[in-house]
Amino acid sequence: MSDVWVPNLGGTHFWDCSGGGCDATTLTESSWESEPNPLYVYAPQYAPVNPADYGGAQYGEQLWITGAASDALSDLMGPDDECCGYDSSYSGGCGKCVLVRNPSAVNADWTAVVMKKNRCPPWTNGCESGNVHLDLAIPGYDNLQWSTANICGSSSATYLTQDQSTVCGSWWDSASSTINGCDCSSMPSSTDEEKIIKRGCELFSAWGWTSGDPSLDYQIVDCPTNFVSMIKNSFASDGVQDAVFPVDPQPIVFPTEQNVTVQTTTAESTTTVQTTTISEPVQEEIPDISYCTWSGVCLENGEGGSDWCDWDESNCDSCGGQWCLGWDLIDSTEASNAAQSTTTKQTVTVQATTADSTTTVQTTTISEPTTTVQITTTTEPTTIIHSTTKSTTAGKELTTTSNHVDTVDGHNEILDAISDVSSDVTALTAIAESLQAAIDASDCTTVTTSNAQSSTIAATSLMDLRFSSKADFENDWTLVTDSGKWNYNDANEAMMIRTGTDGSATYAYKFVSNSQSFQFFMISATGKGNQLYGGDGVCRFEVSATAGTSWHNQPVLLLETSSISGSDTLVFTSGDEDLVVRWIVEGNSGNEKCYLQNVRVQGLGGMKVTTSYPLENRRLRG
């Protein structure tokens, strides 16, 4: 790679499904006896890919792309490389590469390695004799006004209909860049080939072209070895070969603070322009769901415009946007910095008072409004639940108070309180916070005694899992699927499971050791869902009290929206059989994914039910 970039390479995009000129001579002669040749189609593997999914970049490039080169550019690229065919109509350039960048793109310092797999003939717009031009093969970006050979939809071998091949062909009519001008979601994604095509559309869109025919800078470079291998194995004498979609596609990493240097060199002079962009939006309000913005402002009800860009901060950066951190991702270590206008200090106090003694457990965290919960037990078996919530926003203090009074058996005040206040969400949440705070603070037991009664809550950790590699789950969990997959996802530090073909269910389950010793459990799970489209995609963390023969209809965690994360807790009762937990994904496209980040199961000892009816399972937080 040289430091010198050559300017004025004409750039455009297409995807007409027609075979690449460099592949025509690879097919058998007999296949050409029928017209048109059914094998002569463009391979799905020729769509843009992320080098990180195939061993890594060679020049720091973000994309590998194939394309059609003009005759003038082919002359500069040199003779055909034997790896990847040759074009009988014009010799030169097949299997050779150029490194390009687009100074006018949103992500102006992105680069892409582009391999010639086709000829852009002189009768095509922009590729007239003498013009140095490169037409990039991008699914969804064909434009029938200029396309000369669109055969998409002519057979199942093209994978796209003609309408799908042009869904982003005129993006400039409605948007300022490909980031917000192209929606690839209408493309099919049932097979690996379709998934590769759709992801190629998404990857290119994230580059952020601001013109349909920009002037590119380029260098002639050697093709990366892994890129050559991938293209070489994609097409043979019998046509397109089977494709394999990456097990866990990696996001493109792009820094939030960029020093973008654009250097243009001519025979007379060198001009360097350097700019600095800092992606720090104005946080007017904290949104419910994190999203990517291009307006420079984060709004409480704001939302992004691209599932890819909204997935996480690194993807947002790669799209040239600014990340708006929402409540879905804010945890105790981040919330204090999330918005200067909101006070987010939480104090949870659990105080039990009897005639003889008072026991107080208090914890303080950062991330929620101030909440105080008092459970006072006298010699008369009466429990008073008093919940006060205070928060300060924009200098104004708000206070909300709710009360619930009921008579309970002295030995079971917390259990009966949970059962009795099921319709009082505020009180129920208060009990949850007090119980969890007491357990976290003591890490064993909280005991209150009097002459008339005694109460003991003993919390025993049965499972406390976080994932740092596939080894953390592949030996202890069991995968159940027909064609789905699981893997470790480093970006989310999670166990990832993916639906099978056509969205069939995939799940992983694990028995909870020593669970038979307890009847009551506090179960927590944190996870993330991705590509849960169509209303049928769902992630669930479920629990079974029958050793996995049936699953309770109240999941611990339920995620039904694409690109969303969540954390929830459930108080659960079981019989004498083993407790089993599972992480399950269902959908309809075969591309739904669920990421399980941590699991916590605690057995609650010294607790009995004295009522004649069974205690219901209660969701406490979420």
Topology at a glance:
Elements: E1 6-14, E2 63-69, H1 71-77, E3 97-101, E4 111-119, E5 133-137, H2 162-165, H3 178-181, H4 192-207, E6 215-221, H5 225-232, E7 235-236, E8 239-240, E9 257-265, E10 270-278, E11 282-283, E12 291-293, E13 297-298, H6 307-310, H7 313-318, E14 322-324, H8 335-338, E15 342-343, E16 345-353, E17 358-366, E18 370-377, E19 382-393, E20 396-407, H9 413-420, H10 425-442, E21 445-449, E22 454-466, E23 478-480, E24 485-489, E25 494-498, E26 506-511, E27 520-530, E28 538-544, E29 557-559, E30 564-573, E31 580-586, E32 593-605, E33 618-621
Parallel strand pairs: 1-5, 2-4, 11-13
Antiparallel strand pairs: 1-6, 2-5, 3-4, 3-6, 7-8, 9-10, 12-14, 15-19, 16-17, 18-19, 19-20, 21-22, 22-32, 23-26, 24-25, 25-32, 26-31, 27-30, 27-32, 28-29, 28-31, 30-33
Description:
The chain is mainly beta and 622 residues long. The chain folds into four domains: 6-240, Barwin-like endoglucanases (Beta Barrel), CATH 2.40.40; 257-326, no CATH class; 342-452, no CATH class; 461-611, Jelly Rolls (Sandwich). The protein is built from ten helices and 33 strands. Strands 21, 22, 24, 25, 27, 30, 32 and 33 form an eight-stranded antiparallel β-sheet that branches. Strand 19 and strand 20 (396-407) form a beta hairpin. 45% of the residues are buried. The model is unreliable at 253-279, 331-411, 421-425, 443-456 and 608-622 (pLDDT under 50).
